[in-house]
UniProtKB/TrEMBL annotation:
Belongs to the thaumatin family. The keyword Endoplasmic reticulum does not apply. Keywords: Disulfide bond, Signal. Residues 1-23 form the signal peptide. Disulfide bonds join C32-C223, C88-C94, C145-C195, C153-C163, C167-C176, C177-C182. CDD domains: TLP-P (cd09217). PANTHER family: OS03G0233200 PROTEIN (PTHR31048). It holds the Pfam family Thaumatin. InterPro entries: Osmotin/thaumatin-like_sf, Thaumatin, Thaumatin_CS. This is Protein P21-like. It comes from Cucumis melo (Muskmelon). The lineage of its organism: Eukaryota, Viridiplantae, Streptophyta, Embryophyta, Tracheophyta. SUPFAM superfamilies: Osmotin, thaumatin-like protein.
Length: 224
């Protein structure tokens, strides 16, 4: 029996222990006065009545991840259907990202200098108010977007159940930053004026990205 065969179970146990110890726990809570279908990539989806919560772990090193709320849903017994906002291909347990408009909690874990990077983004529009905050590791600076964006949404951005970002509506470089060089616009400023810490357009990094040490746990609250 070779050394690899002898020590493989030991290293496997260490890997499992390391992964579990360093996984980030996310609590997703629905404080809206209505039921939502929470969605997460990675994570899937979960029906949350008012006051209910959903916990799941995310592996260290995960990037390009997000959590959002789906509203006004109608699923059949097989778990297929459609949501008015945030729909992810008609699936109950999301396998990808949701359709605009949807308020996003975005994050990447254990990145540069072993930091977590997290933000609230309105680049896919807005459907429900959101709070995204760390809950451990001595990291206390959270983000909140609790404005009446749906009620005050400009006419050209209005959508059933939410408020679109101008990129979704116009699909131009001015709003979508396809060339990588764009700035704020009067329409993106509508979102920024109401949620100062949230992304209002794709290059809104300076005021909208926050960090915590790797291994931090987080809470996402709909309708905080």
């Amino acid at each position: 029996m070779g050394l690899i065969s002898i020590f493989f179970p030991f290293f496997l146990s260490l890997f499992i222990l390391y992964s579990h110890t360093n996984a980030a726990t996310f609590e997703v809570r629905n404080n809206c006065p209505f039921t939502v279908w929470a969605a997460a990539s990675p994570g899937g989806g979960k029906e949350l009545g008012s006051g209910q919560a959903w916990n799941f772990d995310v592996r260290p090193g995960t990037a390009g991840a997000r959590v959002w709320a789906r509203t006004n849903f109608n699923f059949d017994a097989s778990g297929r259907g459609h949501c008015e906002t945030g729909d992810c291909g008609g699936l109950l347990s999301c396998q990808g990202y949701g359709a605009p408009p949807n308020t996003l909690a975005e994050y990447a874990l254990n990145q540069f200098n072993n930091l977590d990077f997290f933000d609230i983004s309105l680049v896919d529009g807005f459907n429900v108010p959101m709070d995204f905050s760390p809950t451990s590791n001595g990291c206390s600076r959270g983000i909140r977007c609790n404005a009446n964006i749906n009620g005050e949404c400009p006419n050209e951005l209005r959508a059933p159940g939410g408020c679109n970002n101008p990129c979704t509506v116009y699909k131009t470089d001015e709003y979508c930053c396809n060339s990588g060089t764009c700035g704020p616009t009067p329409l993106s400023q509508f979102f920024k004026d109401r949620c100062r810490d949230a992304y209002s357009y794709p290059k809104d990094d300076a005021t909208s990205t926050f960090t915590c040490p790797g291994g931090t746990n987080y809470r996402v609250v709909f309708c905080p």
